[in-house]
Design goal:
Blueprint: H1 3-19, H2 28-33, E1 34-42, E2 45-46, E3 51-60, E4 65-66, E5 82-84, E6 91-98, E7 104-108, E8 113-120, E9 122-131, E10 138-143, E11 146-149, E12 161-162, E13 166-171, H3 181-193
Parallel strand pairs: 2-13
Antiparallel strand pairs: 1-3, 3-9, 4-8, 5-11, 6-9, 7-8, 10-13, 11-12
Length: 194
């Protein structure tokens, strides 16, 4: 093989690897698009049996948008972010996750979608969690099992990126308080499964 062919082959190979999702080049969009991704509990400390709210905040730079967890139309099901919550432990996630309330909508006639929801700016997803009545007191870190983030600009949608998310929490000393009626059955089921 001549030197020129080796150089052309090497350049073609480098270009191919740059386009593979998950490679460093394919993921550079993340640094340009995302200001921060943060998990937080409110309140950040509570007694056993109390309900708290987990918030996942995604802050995007101008010109980029992301998606909710749920779309109203089946044809838009691929245009969502995905969150997998951890198995019950010191905190038991209950109810369903909630999308941001301040989403925008547009029509995508080429895809036969009448209402596509998307989220520019700062996006907050929430879900309730109950402090396990069996939890030991003390500080802990709760890590999501996974968070798949999808981001687009006005011209492109980028490969989905798995973003690690964790949040600090403290189980307070003292006796457990009664679990809210709305979540009592879910908590009981989760404790029975352990």
């Amino acid at each position: 093989m001549t030197r020129a062919r080796v150089v052309v082959f090497a350049m073609a190979l480098a270009t191919l690897f740059a386009l593979v999702p998950g490679s460093a080049s394919a993921q550079k969009w993340y640094e340009k698009a995302v200001k921060k991704v943060e998990g937080r509990f409110t309140p950040a400390e509570a007694k056993r049996g109390q309900t708290v709210t987990f918030s996942l905040t995604v802050e995007l730079n101008e010109g980029y948008h992301t998606y909710p967890l749920f779309q109203p139309e089946k044809k838009a099901d691929g245009m969502v972010n995905t969150i997998k919550f951890p198995a019950p432990d010191k905190l038991i996630f209950v109810g369903k996750p909630e999308d941001p309330k301040d989403f925008a909508t547009k029509e995508e006639p080429d895809l036969d979608i009448k209402e596509l929801r998307y989220c520019p700016g700062t996006v907050v997803y929430t879900r309730k969690a109950v402090v396990s009545p069996k939890a030991t007191a003390g500080a802990t870190t709760v890590k999501l099992a996974s968070f798949g983030l999808n981001v687009c600009d006005k011209n492109n949608c980028f490969p989905s990126k798995a973003v690690p998310v964790e949040a600090a929490f403290k189980v307070l000393e003292g006796p457990a308080v009664p679990v809210e009626k709305a979540f009592a059955e879910e908590v009981e089921k989760a404790l029975g499964a352990k």
